[in-house]
Amino acid sequence: MKKILYLSIICLLATACGRNKETFTIEGYIKGGENKYVKIEEITPSEVIYIDSVLLDDKGEFEFKYKMPYKSFYNIAVSQSDFIMLLPDYDEKIKITGDYNNLSRTYQLIGSPESQLLWQLNDYTIMGADRLDSIKNVYDILIQNTDTNFIKKEKQLLDSIYLNAYYEQQDFVIGFIEEHSGSLSTLIALYKTFNTIPLIKPEQGFEYYEIVNNGLKNNLPENPHTLNFDNTIKKMRFKYGDVVNGGATITMGE
Question: CA angle 96-101-106, nearest 5°?
């Protein structure tokens, strides 16, 4: 009887440990968020799903635990347009800090290597957005000039600066995809844009879609994000499969 009881306790402990390993934890301190809510969402292959709203305490701190059925993307949102994306693994503890009034630009993160990859992508995207804003500001001032020859000359220079900024962003995401093949974070990198223009257009760089797909199939073959993307690639392959990566003419007016 004692032996049976002992075995039952061992089984229960093993089951509990298994459940814990499927759970990730987020701990956060968000300045200016005292007694306010953050929203937790999952980005599934087909939609964004609301999970919970968490109240920050009077110090702006919170803790959230979640048992995830599979590796996926999760948003911590303070508003519809201001959020951070995480990519937790099982049994991870993620610590975040930031400013409630500008979370996506101010947040920092400890733990969760793949969430840190998304953080790197976010930082580089913000840098590109700031550079784009500077170019647009100069352009708006330029077109107020009445000297058409001057405008034409300076616009050519701005287009060159803009094109360089675009290709810098493009080189970064290509390098990111090649370096981190097999990570779900490459899906986010693949669809990055600059001035709403895709950095990797399938008609010019379908090979990178294949790199992402093959990496995910090798590393996470049963993950719903992998399966969904593989189905997408199968459809795209008929149209872009024979396309060789090439250049493109991109200007501010595009």
Answer: 45
Q: Does residue 153 share a domain with residue 176?
A: yes
In a domain, 4, yes or no: no
CATH number at residue 39: 2.60.40.180
User: Same domain for 29 and 85?
Assistant: yes
Res. 187: pLDDT tops 90: yes
Do 83 and 146 lie in one domain? The reply is no
Most distant CA atoms of the chain, gap in Å? 97
Number of structural domains in the chain: 2
**Domain presence at residue 15:** no
What is the per-residue pLDDT across 23-36, written as a single tens digit (0 to 9) for each? Answer: 999 999 999 999 99
Determine the structural domain holding residue 31 and report its residue range: 25-111
User: Which pTM was predicted?
Assistant: 0.84
For residue 243, the model assigns a pLDDT of: 53
Asked whether residue 30 falls in the same domain as residue 62, the answer is yes
Helix (H) or strand (E) holding 175: helix 148-179
Q: Predicted confidence band at 152 (pLDDT cuts at 50, 70, 90)?
A: confident
Q: Cα 53 to chain center, whole Å? A: 21
CA 53 – CA 11 distance, rounded (Å): 34
* 6 domain-assigned: no
Contacts of 95 (CB under 8 A, 6+ apart): 26, 27, 28, 109, 110, 111
Is the pLDDT confidence value at 16 over 80? Answer: no
Q: Residues 234, 241: contact at Cβ < 8 Å?
A: no
Round the average pLDDT of the chain to a whole number and report it.
87
- How far is residue 144's CA from residue 146's CA, in Å, rounded to a whole number? 6
Phi/psi at 76 (nearest 5 deg)?
Answer: -110, 110
pLDDT at 26 (0 to 100): 96
